[in-house]
Amino acid sequence: MRKLCQDLLVNYPSQQFVITTQHTLTQLAAATISDLTEQVTFLLQYLRDSRVQVKLSVLKDLKYLGEKGGHLWESEHIDVLIKSILQRNDWIIEEKMEIDNEQDTANSSPIDAEIDHATLDAINSVTSSSAILIFIRSGSMILYLSTNFSIKSHVMNFY
User: Could you state, in order of their start, the residue ranges of all structural domains in the chain?
Assistant: First the structure.
C-alpha cells in the first residue's frame, strides 16, 4: 500500500493529491507505528517543495507523528527541521553556525513566519522524547540553542 501511494505521487503531483496521499500515509504510519520513522523521512523530503500548502500540510503531519511516536524519530529528523528554518531565513549555516546579524527578522514574510511556527510546533511535539536528547548530545547543541533563541525573537516579531 505504502509503495503504491508513493509511486502515485510521482505520476500525479497535483497539490491536493500530494497533500491527501501524504496525510493518508501519515495516518497509516501512526496507527501501525511500524513505518513511522520511514514516514518522517519521506515527509521531510517534501519540505523542499515550493508549494506553501504542501509544506504546511507536511509540518502538520510531522507534528502529529511527533505526538504519536516521537521516540521513534532520529536526531537527523530534528536536524533537518531546524536547518530548514535557518535556510528559509537566509541565515548562514556552517560547521560552527554563524547568524547573519544584518538579517532583520521583522522583514520576513507572514508566510515564512507561518511555516517557521509550524516547524517549531513539529519540533516541540518531539521534545519530550529521547530523539531531542540524542540530537543535543550529537554536537548540534549550538545550532539548537541558537535556533531556539533566534526563532523566539522571530516569532515574537511576527505576533
Answer: 2-158
CA-nearest of 29, 10, 9, 28 to 19 is 9
Q: How far apart are CA 85 and CA 90, in angstroms?
A: 9
| Residue 114 identity (one-letter amino acid) | E
pLDDT tens for 125-137 read 887 655 454 444 4
pLDDT tens digit sequence for 92-108:
444 334 444 444 444 56
User: Which amino acid is residue 14, in one-letter code?
Assistant: S
- What is the C-alpha separation between 33 and 27, in angstroms, rounded? 10
> One-letter amino acid identity for 72?
L
Burial class (CB in 10 A: 0-12, 13-18, 19+), 2: middle
Q: Is 33 left (phi over 0), alpha (psi -120 to 50) or beta?
A: left
Q: Grid coordinates standing for 58?
A: 507536511
- C-alpha cell of residue 2: 505504502
